[in-house]
Amino acid sequence: MKSTDEDTHHKARILCVEDDLNLQKSLSFILWREGYEVLCAQTGEEALELVRREKPDLILLDLLLPGIDGHKVCGILKKDPNTSEILVIMVTAKKRMEDIVAGLKDYADDYVTKPFEPQVLLARIQALLRRRVQSAGNQKMTLEIDGLVINRGAYEVLAGGRKIALTKTEFEILALLAGKPNQVFTRSRILDNVREDGYPITERVVDYHLTGLRKKLGKAKRYIQTVRGVGYKFNVGEGS
Question: 67, 180, 183, 225: which sits with the fewest CB atoms below 10 Å from its CB?
Answer without folding.
Answer: 67
